[in-house]
């Protein structure tokens, strides 16, 4: 419990002071969220299949169950969303649902192009249709030559470069002049010293050190962190997108990240369970004291209080209060996305970044939960690391994704610039 006063040295009135309180995890309840319940993706898939499968075709129940067991929750969600997109097409355009012919899939692909879906999204939807046909025991039409040619034509007619998340590279701390763009250092400087600010700083710092995907980041638990004597730590990653069998992986945490994690844990009272949690904020306004109203005196009389006494108060004065309530459950991926964009906006408001207008809007729109992973990859390439070790460090099964992330690395940081800068300076 602390009292927060204005920064200057002037006297503080009760109306200006603020009482800040923290209810650690398990000692308070968060405000209940409004909105509907989360969609049951397995039930959604079963319902979609029941409506799409033609008479005479059956879904292999065992294959359906085992196919879902082999997939991560995010993959099941993507499969359900993709099949829902195809079901919407079938509802608008009469014809067979499942199994589908090559012509039907081409018509669906053309419909996706009319709706201006991106090639990467359409490619994933076709992959999902291939999975569904496997559950039906039918050959997938998505592998047919007509479909492949139609997809090639689609990609030629639109920009085939997949939009990459705006990178959050480490960057320099903000000096006399504001930074020219968003970096990890800028965002850390924009995190306030409040409890939510300590959580956000620890989250951003850990996300950069490890390059975790957001689904992995929100699953980080206190038990996964093993501190070392030199101030660093080893983070255990039980499962990941490329490790559905749960073989596990390890990542390194810097001393700076560990200091931020320690500050967050101490402030939030977290000793076990999820590391990054939702924080509820309850606020009350300051109020002035209300004196007891003066009663009307009889004619010819005047009420007098004894010397040295004050009129009784109906209500005492009270300070403004802010109470932070730490929840029991982990943050959601949507909450992480909001934290990144909100911190970027704060950096602009505090004049830490020199961006404005359309340039600012585009920079913030490009930020996502993948931005720190992209930024770390580009920083590793910029220091001369090869794609192989980078792919291993960030837990990719091949180097192609690492190379794609490093493709937009600034020319002044690539291998040619590093070599020629020494001999042609």
TrEMBL record:
- Where is each Tyr recombinase domain found? 169-419
| PROSITE patterns on file | TYR_RECOMBINASE
User: What species does this protein belong to?
Assistant: Sphingobium cyanobacteriorum
* Top-level division of the source organism's lineage: Bacteria
Q: Which InterPro entries match?
A: DNA_brk_join_enz, Integrase-like_cat_sf, Integrase_catalytic, Integrase_recombinase_N
| Record field: transmembrane | none
Signal peptide segment: none
Which UniProt keywords are present, listed alphabetically? DNA recombination, DNA-binding
- Name the record gives this protein: Integrase
